[in-house]
Amino acid sequence: MKCHLYFCRMKLLNKKLILVIASMGIFVEALDIAIINLALPKIEKDLGLTNDSSYKLQSVYVLIYGCFLILGGKLSDFMGRKTVFIWGAIIFLLTSLGAGLSQTYHALLLFRTLQGLGAALIMPSAFSIVNYYFTASRERSRAIGIFGSFAATGSAAGLSVGGIIASYLGWSWVFLINVPILLIVIVIAYLYLENDEKSHSKLPDIPAAIALVAAMLSLTWATELLSKPAENRLKIAGFLLLLVVTSLYLYKRLKTQPIPLLDLKVLALPSLRKGNTLFILLGALFTGYLFLMSFLIQQNFHFSAAESGFIMMPFNVLSILIGRFGLPVLSRRIPAKTIALLGASSMLAGTLSLVAAVYYQSLFFLLAGGSLIAGIGMTLCFTGYSVIAMEKVPTEQLGVSGSLTTTAYFVGGGIGLPVVSMFMSNTAGEWNGRPILVLCAIALGSITLLSFPNSLLFSRNERLAD
């Protein structure tokens, strides 16, 4: 009897340890999206960059992450969750080390790109690990809640911690901080995760995955070149041609393969299309906000990176508190569309407040804008948009549909950053308020899309099915 209790306790302890390890993997991935922002002015100064160059350090990570997420999920099913998780963590560790030791912009950009690839392997495999080890309904819900809270905490903490680390330790440590954490994660994952069983899944459709990545990258690169259309017209035309060719090839593969990379029937759902469009807009808005806020608070209001980190910490705490205590109450009382509209309206109010902050040089409007966007709007939008995207999706397609919404968010960030950067000064240390107006337009577009009645968004067949 005592022996049985001992093994039960050890099994429970191991499961908790596994949950922490999977959650720490997603924590580091989420942390790295935000942590670089307040360090960017210091990176610009040390490496002699312009605003136009520094934004690519953020956009390339977000874009590669989004482009490879679906393939990462498919590889996790084929190669095994433990294998993909450990290899993703190793790639992230090595590229974090390389980024921290980089002495040139191009080396840093290369390692930042490969970090995005590592993150795209960690995220779906970590989620698969949680679902594999926690099978009972209530147990799984609690585990996923803890897993999600680590991601939210990583995103929330990154912006504040990045400024503090960059000020006291140097910008290299916003990358090097990942190394000891991931080393512990890799060792414990290797020791405690069950070895992967032989997979019965077929190899993912690699040509379709390559076409998907090429289409996303060509769209982003064409968008970046629009800042100087006359000088880059041939390159823009070339990337747009590549976008058309790869998109047509991808569509053909999805339609003809017995086990396609994505199910076209799911992609045809109007509710999922609407949700993915909203996530693209959200990714563009919030990633743009994180990037712009780091320059606004340091260059317009002349706070140091450390002071900026401390100032922005309350926004992050507010976001965590709303997600933990406010959303459960709202979800029981009002529908998801109303939550989404409240979030989008908060985003719009926040961007307008930032415009006022630049115009009046007012710290009050700056803090109000940050609270409305990072503290309230992001939390409400992410929840509301998720429900809208998934409400019509069949149960057996929830996994790939969830990957699609996450991909849409990060691709939005990858496209939104170059669009925002078009309106920034190309000189380091100079900044203006025009990019915030772009964020205002994105927020207004989200509200407009949410306001469309269902009769204009759902097909006749879907309405009849309802």
Automatic annotation (TrEMBL):
Subcellular location: Membrane
CDD domains: MFS_MMR_MDR_like
Membrane topology: Multi-pass membrane protein
Broad class of where this protein is predominantly found: membrane
Domain (Major facilitator superfamily (MFS) profile) ranges: 18-463
Gene3D superfamilies per record: MFS general substrate transporter like domains, Multidrug resistance protein D
Chain ranges passing through the membrane: 17-40, 55-72, 84-102, 114-134, 146-165, 171-193, 205-222, 234-251, 278-297, 309-327, 339-360, 366-388, 400-424, 436-458
InterPro entries according to UniProt: MFS, MFS_dom, MFS_trans_sf, Sugar_transporter_CS
GO molecular function, one term: transmembrane transporter activity
One GO CC annotation: membrane
The entry's keywords: Membrane, Transmembrane, Transmembrane helix, Transport
PANTHER family: MAJOR FACILITATOR SUPERFAMILY MULTIDRUG TRANSPORTER MFSC
Protein name per UniProt: Major facilitator superfamily MFS_1
Organism, as annotated: Chitinophaga pinensis (strain ATCC 43595 / DSM 2588 / LMG 13176 / NBRC 15968 / NCIMB 11800 / UQM 2034)
